[in-house]
Amino acid sequence: MQNRTFQSLCVSEPKDNKTTQPHRLPLYATSSFVMENTEDAISIFKGQKKGHVYSRYANPTIDAVAQKIADLEGFGQDIRTYGYLTSSGMSAISTLMMALVNSGDSILTQGNLYGGTTELFIKAFGPKGIKTLFHNFDDIEGVIKILKIDTSVKVIYLESPANPTLSCIDLKLISSIAREHRVLTVIDNTFCTPYLQRPLDFGIDFVVHSTTKFLNGMGNSISGVIVGQREDYKDRIWQTLKLMGGTCNSWDAWLINNGLKTLTFRMDKHSENALFLAQNLENHPEILKVNYNGLSSHPYHSIAKKQMSDFGGMISFEVNRDLRGTIEFIDQLKLATHAPTLGDTDTLVLHPVTSSHLNVDKALCREYGISENLVRFSVGLEHKQDILDDVLQALES
Ligand SMILES: *Cc1c(COP(=O)(O)O)cnc(C)c1O
């Protein structure tokens, strides 16, 4: 090698001196990858040869974690799944839907979606000529009727259980109806994670997650994932992701991988703690109603039981108070933190009508049981008695 100046030595990149395989997935903090020679570069760019190019497309950290989640969603099934990590849950949803629908197409969905998703469909997709039809999926006959009449419907977009009252949709039934009408199905599986529910097993075509929530579970990153089994859409989704630019970064991917290692332990504990809270609040005189899929009194208990292996950490309940009293109850909580996220290790509380559902139509809120006195809990991993005691002391004050 020719003699370098001190300055050039400073600028130079040291060689990777790895001699043995690292035990943990390395964090590739690099925007681009070195091409061996021009011929090599051409065949990689043409897709004839495998190789990383540029981290907006993918990189080894991101790919490894995306495939790990895809494997979890496809677990126990005789299918090959692929996954793409994205910069947020919203980016997973917007990228996938941009890949699946065109102007003139319609999306058929439920009225009680995650607020950001409803806004995306109406405010961002609407003006671009993509229509969204909202329908209550309790009415399956109505869904079939819409599919028969309206051939513009390209995708059925679902959440089960849905925020914050945990309504469920029979995934096997919906996917078979969708197939009959040659309509694609997408589900946001954020509340369950593949540990509790694997929608691809019930014939759903695509799964999205906000990995920000339970999959990472540590509350320290914003990211999302798209998982699919349909090879005919794989390249189109990747193209859309790479061109819209919503790729995840390797640091967040690396954090998700850390969180995934404890996924089963966390989900078991979230479920156990949430059930304990639900059972103890159900007959409390100051609680009017408890929404938890694990309670046999929940209207969607039997559907949930059919397709979920346990009922997760999300619960909501109505306190016997008016709007002001409900806010006072929330402010009296000491262990639970008032924060607009879910799926963290600690218990979080949210008041839907003044936060996530602030911009949602009042009539729609009523239809889906989102009242002024409804409080949502993301039940954490603390000792279950501490969580219950916190709620009880706030109810008494
Ligand atoms: C948080 C959330 C999203 C959005 O995810 P971000 O990571 O915040 O973009 C989508 N769906 C559900 C069910 C969520 O809870």
Can you give a write-up of this model?
The protein has helices at 6-11, 38-45, 60-73, 89-100, 115-125, 140-149, 171-180, 193-196, 231-244, 250-260, 263-282, 301-307, 323-332, 362-367, 384-396; strands at 82-86, 106-109, 131-134, 153-159, 184-188, 206-210, 224-228, 287-291, 314-319, 337-338, 348-350, 374-378. Strand 4 (153-159), helix 7 and strand 5 (184-188) form a beta-alpha-beta unit. The protein has 397 residues and is an alpha/beta fold. A seven-stranded mixed beta sheet has the order 1-7-6-5-4-2-3, with helices on both faces. The protein has a five-stranded mixed beta sheet with strand order 8-9-12-11-10, covered by helices on one side. The chain is globular and about 85 Å long. The model has no long low-confidence stretch (mean pLDDT 95). The longest helix has 20 residues, at 263-282. It contains 15 helices and twelve strands. Pyridoxal-5'-phosphate binds at residues 88-90, 114, 116, 163, 188, 190, 210, 212-213, 222, 224, 342.
Rough shape? Answer: globular
Helix content: 25-40%
Number of helices: 15
Judged by helices, strands and strand pairing, the structural class is alpha/beta
Low-confidence stretches: none
**Total number of beta strands:** 12
Indicate the topology.
Layout lengths: L5 H6 L26 H8 L14 H14 L8 E5 L2 H12 L5 E4 L5 H11 L5 E4 L5 H10 L3 E7 L11 H10 L3 E5 L4 H4 L9 E5 L13 E5 L2 H14 L5 H11 L2 H20 L4 E5 L9 H7 L6 E6 L3 H10 L4 E2 L9 E3 L11 H6 L6 E5 L5 H13 L1
Parallel strand pairs: 2-3, 2-4, 4-5, 5-6, 10-11
Antiparallel strand pairs: 1-7, 6-7, 8-9, 9-12, 11-12
The site of pyridoxal-5'-phosphate (PLP) has 14 residues, from helix 4.
